[in-house]
Specification:
single chain, alpha/beta, Arc Repressor Mutant, subunit A
């Protein structure tokens, strides 16, 4: 991919609609645009597409902006379509004047009570374009009819606003989800009508649930900020999203953002849908936590792990799966004599079996079947609290 197209600087845009929170599909699209712009020393624009006045909400725009900030996806410019109406109106007027659009008399219906709208005069021709990901794509625009591009001169609609903005902002590459593929021929017709150059298109495949169905909230389609609340690092989420439908060309799986920028290539995006795997995201997150300085690791884990709540232990969960209650009690009693010396505890665990020793210790400290390792827990809890929790587990086992 060359750095300049027709001697123009690379410009990309992410254009979310504030009719809902930013989800992982949108975050991945934003990431791919960001990586491409950074790699090509180009410009990354965030454009809030709020032409739908009834459904657009400030709370959703706030969510989008906060998500970008948390992820660290820095944009060069921010626009809101609601603040650009005059620009769209000027294009509508020009199109009416040159005959590429016309005022259409309509028969009012329940769904559309208007008696007239503004339509694009469709030349009814075949449109071909090269998609970076999907290859050659063809559409017969005859079936589209004359597109409605505005409710009135002062009320432009989505497709016109998108095309005008891309033209005015010098967008060279449109990198977006494949659900927008069917929008492309409509937008190309409008481009030709206003004399705008055609950008390069790259339509990203969908993110799918494990059963290859549309991603649902249950399977991971939640707000980006919900992952923040779940203890996922922004670096981890970006790393994982990059691997959804894109191949780095190596066996490496853990990347920093700067490493992703260095190796990102649009041509390595897959054509098929990518499967979202929550367990893989958790693994990527653990690997990124390991990269943090020890002090930062402990702060992060302490934040996620409530160290002020005394765990409620279930006696049958204390022993390791190949051990029993008496053995677990014996191991915990010996560990108690070695605390707080982690090296001595690990030496004992290697001799007696790591699972036999470390599982009951970790469960005694956390009360959880999934938690940080016991050495980390002891650092967070401190020596006195750690001993108190182990003694409580021993008491339960001795009953």
């Amino acid at each position: 991919m060359t750095e300049e197209i027709n001697n123009k600087k690379i410009v990309v845009r992410m254009a979310p609609s504030p009719t809902g929170n930013l989800h992982i599909g949108g975050a991945r699209t934003a990431l791919f645009n960001f990586l491409f712009a950074q790699k090509q020393n180009g410009k990354f624009i965030l454009r809030i597409e709020d032409t739908d006045k009834e459904r657009s909400k400030q709370e959703f725009e706030d969510n989008i902006l906060e998500s970008f900030e948390w992820l660290g996806l820095k944009y060069d410019e921010l626009f809101r379509q609601s603040e650009r109406t005059e620009i769209y109106v000027s294009y509508v007027k020009k199109m009416l004047e040159n005959g590429s659009a016309y005022i259409s008399k309509e028969t009012p219906t329940e769904e559309n009570p208007r008696t007239e709208v503004i339509r694009l005069k469709n030349p009814n021709k075949k449109i071909d374009f090269e998609d970076v990901i999907r290859g050659e794509v063809s559409f017969d625009t005859t079936e589209l009819g004359d597109l409605v591009i505005a409710k009135s001169v002062n009320e432009p609609l989505y497709h016109l606003a998108v095309v005008v903005d891309d033209f005015e902002m010098g967008v060279t590459h449109v990198i977006r989800g494949e659900e927008h593929l069917s929008n492309t021929p409509r937008q190309i017709l409008i481009q030709e009508a206003i004399g705008a150059p055609r950008p390069i298109y790259a339509h990203i495949p969908l993110i799918l649930a494990p059963d290859r169905s549309k991603l649902s909230k249950r399977a991971g389609a939640v707000s980006v900020l919900e992952y923040k609340n779940q203890g996922i690092l922004p670096e981890s989420l970006l790393n994982y999203l990059a691997l959804l439908g894109w191949n780095p060309g190596t066996e490496q799986e853990i990347f920093t953002l700067s490493e992703l920028i260095e190796i990102f290539d649009l041509s390595r995006i897959h054509k098929g849908g990518a499967i979202f795997d929550a367990k893989k995201l958790d693994w990527v997150n653990k690997e990124h936590i390991k990269l943090l300085p020890r002090e930062e690791q402990l702060k992060f884990i302490a934040k996620e792990f409530d160290a002020t709540t005394t765990p409620v232990l279930e006696i049958e969960k204390i022993p390791w799966k190949t051990s029993n209650i008496l053995e677990a009690k014996t191991h915990l009693e010996h560990v108690l004599t070695l605390m707080p010396h982690g090296d001595l505890i690990m030496k004992y665990a290697e001799e007696a079996g790591k699972g036999n020793v470390l599982w009951p210790l970790r469960y005694a400290l956390s009360g959880l079947e999934k938690s940080p390792d016991p050495m980390t827990l002891m650092e967070i809890l401190g020596g006195e609290e750690s001993k108190k929790r182990v003694e409580a587990a021993i008491k339960i086992l001795g009953q």
